[in-house]
Amino acid sequence: MSGRVAADLEMKDSDDWSLPSLRHQNDELPYVHKVGKPPKQDLLKEIKTALKETFLSDDPLKPFKDQPSKRKLVLGFQTLFPILQWSRDYSFSKFKGDFIAGCTIASLCIPQDIGYAKLANLDPQYGLYSSFVPPLIYAFMGSSRDIAIGPVAVVSLLLGSMLQDELDPITQKHEYQRLAFTATFFAGVTQATLGFFRLGFLIDFLSHAAIVGFMGGAAVTIALQQLKGLFGIKKFTKKTDVVSVMRSVIQAAHHGWNWQTILIGVSFLVFLLVAKYIGKKNKKLFWVSAIAPLISVIISTVCVFLTRADRDGVQIVRHIDKGINPSSANQIYFSGDYLAKGFKIGVISGLIALTEAVAIGRTFASMKDYQIDGNKEMVALGTMNIVGSLTSCYVATGSFSRSAVNYMAGCNTAVSNIVMSCIVMLTLLVITPLFKYTPNAILASIIINAVVGLVDFDAILLLWKIDKFDFLACMGAFFGVVFASVEIGLLIAVAISFAKILLQVTRPRTAVLGKIPRTSVYRNVEQYPGATRVPGVLIIRVDSAIYFSNSNYIKERYEVLSTVYFLCLLSTVYCLLYCLLLTVYCLLSTVHCQLLILRWLTDEEEMFKDQPRVEYLIVDMSPVTDIDTSGIHALEELHSSLQKREVQLILTNPGQTVLDKLHASNFADMIGEDKIFLTVADAVLTFSPKMEQA
User: Fold this and answer.
1) Which of 57-61, 375-379, 585-589 comes out lowest in average pLDDT?
2) Cα separation values, 638 from 634, 657, 684, Å
């Protein structure tokens, strides 16, 4: 018990004549539960629990418990290769759906792969190689039933732009290809390492808003890059920013555009967009948009061959090496200057590819109501890219457009990836010579059609409605990619994501609580204007853990963030500067701001001069999940400051972890254990009973 109720009960040792009156008084007072000292926790047990919650929250070893050795071995193989588990229930009816889906996505991926390889500044066959080996590996090791594996536009652009910063893809072609395989190898190592050590939560640091902006900016950049093939321009900038690209397009307008190329590209682009619209409008006609790229390639190739338009300046593919993937194990840089460069490029492209694949896998898993293991996905994706780097592939991941087609085509398992891989293999063995007269303009049209859907206008609008800071992050990443480069856009996306985390950690929300009429519930007075304040009592809730990064802010009032935020909203061009300012500001908040809780007290006294002076400060610690030594030190300073004002500090509902540390630091003894309550209502009942019983 605490406060007045506990004091009343302690009177039981007084004179006998007072017992009846005390018994009568206690019958009238509601019960106030005492918040006692929790049992001491074992340190090793705490560490073990923390590590388990961080790295083994899904308890992956649970199926192995109490199993014989042979069964554990079988379960181990099934964990590493999920195909061994679901293949036992595989049937011919499921195969029919997978076969149709595999054929459908193969018709879509073959022309896309040729175009994406050019986007990465690689020969066309490398795109096809990357849709042959990686999907086979993933089918055996992946846990998603719907994801379709292969090269994707964003990763191809990112890889190509970063590689050409190191080597020229034309004059240093062999070294460029070796660096691409090296980057792919380290992309796979990065992905597999994150999955093996169960560090998948690290990719969540790239916020959804930043990803939406980055993907949208990359889509615009990719589409602008395709103007070279769409207009038949021979001399084109190697830069990816919109200013450089448009300058190249305009400068080539008088002598560099080819009208036959423009006719082919624009006409088939319109055809592809119409086919996509039909597929979206009527889900039963999804196959129209899926097969449209292959039809476009066939028709345009035949037209160019019959008219020999290549002699009139129409640029064509000319040559694709025949045969399946050659080994590239001896071409990876394991030493020398290019090792570090390949590692850097591989880590960045691997993380982006991983983020996209996991997001796609989770999306379709939720649509079909099944679970995927994120860490298994990372191991599978990493393994397929490691093997791919040894077999002349570049970074592959899950493709949203192909996965959507795979889903709508009725796939049941990852066998659809095996079917697609087999069709790509047949293409490499037999059909590649037929692509000789395929015009580059049709590949540009296919890529533009594929990336149009990456600009998610609905998501951007939703970000604006829900969270202006998220919208700022989105626009910062978008304009960074479009006006600077893919790398700068990615840097801005990561910087803004971390800035938001820092802002939320160092600037937790606080609220003044009032009592909801005719209840014992206390809520934010801003959210519930009808909530009444307790005379002589200030109730504050801290909506965050109290760490070194925000402990000063718990004591301080933050006065100028709204001004900085408003000014930064005026232009997203300064978003990176804004992130840096926020970070610095979080570190210097002590210098620039006044005491938060003491200011609350001052405000209360100014706003309610006709009310009793505040004598009690109740801090609701329900949302406080943890507290460190800096946080406790801040509470000690707060307690000292309040004593000088003759205000008593009262804590309510601290969690077990927080309560343990309050007792370990003797702070509970400092304020008195009778100043710690289970609920705000109990505290008010003890120190202001008339208000609580009203």
Assistant:
1) 585-589
2) 6, 21, 20
Encoding tokens for residue 573? 């061009």
Cα–Cα distance list, 168 to 176, 214, 227, 245, 339 (Å)? 7, 26, 21, 18, 17
User: For residues 328 and 304, what is the distance between their CA atoms, to the nearest angstrom?
Assistant: 34
Q: Compute how many other C-beta atoms are within 10 angstroms of the C-beta atom of residue 666.
A: 10
Tokens of 138: 């993933």
Beta-strand runs (E) in 369-495: 397-399
Does residue 677 sit in helix, strand or coil? Answer: strand
Is-contact 624 544, C-beta < 8 A? yes
E runs forming strands in 81-181? 148-150
Give Cα 548 to chain centroid, integer Å: 26
Pairing of strands 510-515, 397-399: unpaired
Please identify which residue in the block is written with the tokens 């080597």. Answer: 167
Gap between the Cα atoms of 525 and 534, Å rounded:
11
* Mean pLDDT computed over 601-626: 77
Instruction: Please give the single-letter amino acid code of residue 580.
Output: L
Q: If residue 561 lies in a helix (H) or strand (E), which one and from where to where? A: helix 561-569
Cβ(151)–Cβ(91) below 8 Å = no
Q: What whole-number distance in Å separates Cα of residue 91 and Cα of residue 459?
A: 39
Q: Which of 222, 492, 524, 163 is CA-nearest to residue 349?
A: 163
The partner residues of 511 in beta bridges, in order of sequence, read 541
CA separation for the pair 439, 33 (Å, rounded): 80
- Tokens encoding 189: 């190592």
What span, in angstroms and rounded, lies between the C-alpha atoms of 373 and 358?
9
> What tokens does 194 get?
């994150």
CB 394 within 8 A of CB 100: no
Nearest to 354 by CA among 380, 372, 332, 388: 380
Q: How far apart are CA 83 and CA 443, in angstroms?
A: 35
What tens digit of pLDDT does each residue of 401-420 get?
Answer: 899 899 989 999 999 999 99
Q: E-assigned strands of 488-546? A: 510-515, 522-524, 537-542
Q: DSSP of 571-620, one letter per residue?
A: -GGGHHHHHHHHHHHHHTHHHH-EEHHHHHHHHHHHHTTTSPPP-EEEEE
**DSSP-assigned letter for residue 514:** E
The set of long-range contacts for 425-433, using a CB threshold of 8 Å and a minimum separation of 24, is 425/132, 425/324, 427/110, 427/128, 428/125, 428/128, 428/129, 428/132, 428/322, 428/323, 428/324, 428/325, 429/322, 429/323, 429/324, 432/125, 432/128, 432/320, 432/321, 432/322, 433/320, 433/322
For 102-155, what is each residue's pLDDT tens digit? Answer: 999 999 999 999 999 999 999 999 999 999 999 999 999 999 999 999 999 999
